[in-house]
Amino acid sequence: MAATLVALAACGGSGSSGGRPNIIFIMADDHAYQAISAYDDTLITTPNIDRLASEGIRFDRAFVGNSICSPSRATLLTGKFSHANGLRNNLHVFDGDQQTLQQLMRDAGYETAIIGKWHLKSEPTGFDHWQVLPDQGEYYNPDFVSDAGTERFGGYVTDITTDLVIDWLDGRDDDRPFLLFYHHKAPHREWWPPIDGVTEFHDMSIIEPDTLFDDYEGRGAAAASAEMRIADHMGLTNDNKITPENAARLGHQPFMDWYDDAYRRQYEAYMNDEQRAAMDAVYGPINERFVAENPRGIELTRWKYQRYLQDYLATVRSIDDNLGRLLGHLGELEMLQDTVIVYTSDQGFFLGEHGWFDKRFMYEESFRTPLIIRWPGGVEAGGVREAIVQNVDFAPTLLDIAGADIPADMHGRSLKPLFAADNPDFRDAAYYHYYEYPGIHAVKRHYGARTARYKLIHFYYDVDEWELYDLRNDPNELRNVYDDPAYAVARAEMTRVLEGLQARYGDSPDAARLALEADLAEER
User: What is the spatial distance between Cα 407 and Cα 426, in angstroms, rounded to a whole number?
Assistant: First the structure.
């Protein structure tokens, strides 16, 4: 079986153009692996994403190099960590003149397209077709930008993105294989659900994570000072859909002024009258109950958590439903056998773990991303991989599938050797470096390394703190053992691993200092 898979993978599967398969790369935004039932069915069932896993392989140790939207997308396009591709935070503009995956694939004879979220500030380059959301995009009646200009579409963004993908598939020239980036806005904050699915999770009592009320005892300043606690920093208006008037009536002030503005923008600038009426019919009674009950303290945190997950999961449901629609259409086009489908997210996300929403940290829920690859004849159906892989591997893998050369300066490596069988020695450790501080959510700058058992993190800039976690004995990362004498050997080994990764990838504490100085100079 394994030998057959290796042979098929080596010749590119059963692709329709010169033995080369089509590739559809699906990236959601902030889709936590905890909200995919192929990984964990506690919160939601996702039958269509699960289908990809049952017909392909699921990676259980897939990580990003910088858990934030724009840098993760730049890594996909370059196969390089943030310090090398020049995009360290969401404020930077992507340099589309540098070597990119889509241009290399086009040079190799592939038709290239991106439809959906781009979020890199510069105009897309290297694509035969592009139709993208400006900046973050909107959930209702969104604008899409292309080389023909800006066009507003009526409806829900996940449905519209899929419509545009299907239209492109129907109208494309089928003389060449293609690489299509199908990139969703959902489930990005503020988690506005589809009107026809808004109430699906409202009657559920969603299970709270064990660490929802984490007090951050025994860890450094970074965890305690981050501004992404559901209790204190989640918006009642933009995030939980309580009107600004009702929130103010009960004495709640937004953590940031733009929270209320974001709520009003969605309602007043983008929803039409019919959509507003439909949402008012749902959220009006929720507002009335909130005012009547007026929860405070722990009960308010619990209420906000339930509201957060109800809307977040509804946006995930829409992604899964639309994936089912796409798979059905690919079946009608008789393309399923000849198409590689990758499903991933730009990073992980906190769904109440440690009391948080958002991402940015090197802690598992943020650092780890879902990754599923379906390739009939090219990968083992129903396979699970424990090898450590990273998003720097995406570009080399797609190039390898296409039979194209992988540039030597890419930091990642092709995952193709893992398609037939797992290999725990594929990568000894994952590397991470987060830069966006000072900034929203106040997550301090840090870099680190993760092996199969241990994780070492160094927080720097306004602090100089180290954290070491034994993931085997402390999977929730609640006990920093960096100064524990019992872990002296592990600390020394992880320090060596981290320094080795920085040398391998051309990053270092000195490079971090120079990047910091450059970022602060830009802000000034």
Answer: 19
